[in-house]
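Researcher: Checking consistency across runs. Here is Probable Fe(2+)-trafficking protein again:
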Amino acid sequence: MSRQVFCVYLQKEAAGLDFQLYPGELGKKIFDNISKEAWALWQAKQIMLINEKKLNMMNLEHRKLLEEQMQQFLFEGKEVQIEGYVPKTN
């Protein structure tokens, strides 16, 4: 059975990550409080952000920006702002 966490993003019990995917204190916080489902949602946003802003993961400033966006998205309920991206509405 998969590890369960109370996902702060989804506000419910859900399958947790299998291992810590991000280093340091923030990585531990994500491992303890974020579900696989919420992490997958973040990864889709992250790819869009990297592409939109042409981020270079070798650049410390770019990584810092991405980390700030990740924290805001996962823990503060803030939507990632991606210029030129309009979510599809049904």
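Researcher: Does this match what you'd expect to see?
Model: One thing to look at in this run: The radius of gyration is 14 Å.
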